[in-house]
Amino acid sequence: MTASVSRSKDVKIIASRSRTDRLLALATTALAAVALSGCGGGTPDPVDPSGSPTSAPTSAPTSAPTSAPTSTVQADLSGACATTTPAASGGLPVCAAPYTDGVALRLPAAPSPDQGYGAFTRGGAGFATADGTVHEVSAGVLDQASAAADAAGVPDYATTAYLATFTGEEVTAVTPVLRIDHDALVRSVFAGSTMVGTISPVDTPASPQDPSYSDDPSLPIAITWSDDAAGGQLSGTIANATSSVQVAGTCLPALSSAAANPLVGGFTASVGLMTYPSMHAPWDDELVFLWTQDSTGMGESYYPSVATLMGADAVAGTWEVVQHGSPTSGPGMDLTLQPKGSTPTTC
Questions:
Q1: Residue 301: CB partners within 8 Å, gap ≥ 6?
Q2: Model pTM?
Q3: What's the rounded Cα separation, in Å, for the pair 45 and 39?
Q4: Are strands 115-120 and 127-129 parallel, antiparallel or unpaired?
Q5: Number of Cβ atoms within 10 Å of the Cβ of 343
Q6: Is residue 150 within 8 Å of residue 137, measured between CB atoms?
Q7: C-alpha triplet 53, 54, 57: angle, nearest 5°
Q8: 167 pairs with which residues across the strands?
């Protein structure tokens, strides 16, 4: 019997910089999931073919964030993105296409000394305003911002810009002012890009039905991502699955030439990525690596927040991808996002 790790508030993956710490956190979460469910195993909430969760959170909160008076929202947000759709009745204007040159999301200047337009950074670590300042956020605002969600249980903060009210330097209230199209957000950060790094070798002799993997990524890998997103998901291809490729001046050998080729069974060259805010608990924001509907990896460092589009919460360093549930049941990866235009070529 397989247990699904829910969005229970009692279970949380702890963000950590160390792969070892992350593996320990995953193991702790898997054990907690077993205790909560009474079943073995651990996989993310199911996703449909578009990459959207097919199950709502264990409790579907709908309360709105602590809000400043709506009468204070005066700024024209039509220039915040390259294409902005006016607000429908009772709704918010929608950023349909961020800018592709310079800062992708350009919010107005602060309307007053105790207010500012901005968005939450990944993990709720802060609130970034248009002037580049990252403010602390009160616990009440974080709790209520993570509770407001759409019908599928996806937190509003993942795709919303706000007008914040400050008490001193702390955000003590927020009012939603602009919605960012989910596909547009993912596309702005990752579409048409390339990631390079290393992937775990499979333990040999490999069992296609039930492979196991080293927890030390060591084989070179290059992944190219498509130019468009659908359902919050971006498709990709492992460029060096069967032939060697050159990226950034380095020739990467084909994975198929390795005796411990990790691409066995359901692990193929066709992959995907999607954002998953508050995966296991509020503000546990993960970027999910999709192998199949039932097999995923994850890591928080490359999760793109709305503040990322503002240039205040960059995806930087290495995306440490750990297999969901049992870390050695799928390939781990250390990936680095390359500058746009770094397209692999044969070598």
A1: 287, 315, 316, 317, 318, 319, 320
A2: 0.80
A3: 15
A4: antiparallel
A5: 15
A6: no
A7: 70
A8: 170
The pairing of beta strand 170-180 with beta strand 134-137: parallel
Q: Please, where are the H alpha helices in the chain? A: 19-37, 139-147, 182-190, 306-309
Phi, psi (5° rounding) for residue 295?
Answer: -140, 115
Band (pLDDT 50/70/90 cuts) for residue 8 is very low
Which of 52, 56, 53, 27 has the alpha carbon at shortest distance from 42? 27
| pLDDT exceeds cutoff 70 at 6 | no
Model confidence over 172-208: pLDDT tens digits?
Answer: 999 999 999 999 999 999 999 999 999 999 998 878 7
Kindly report each contact of residues 208-212 with a partner whose C-beta sits within 8 Å and lies 24 or more positions away, as own/partner.
208/264, 208/265, 209/265, 210/265, 211/264, 211/265, 211/267, 211/329, 211/330, 212/328, 212/329
Concatenated DSSP letters of 169-212? TEEEEEEEEEEEPHHHHHHHHHTT-EEEEEEPPBPSS--TTS--
Are 150 and 158 spatial neighbours (Cβ–Cβ below 8 Å)? no
Residue 12: partners with Cβ closer than 8 Å, 6 or more residues away:
29, 280, 281, 284
Among candidates 145, 68, 139, 78, which has minimal Cα distance to 306? 145
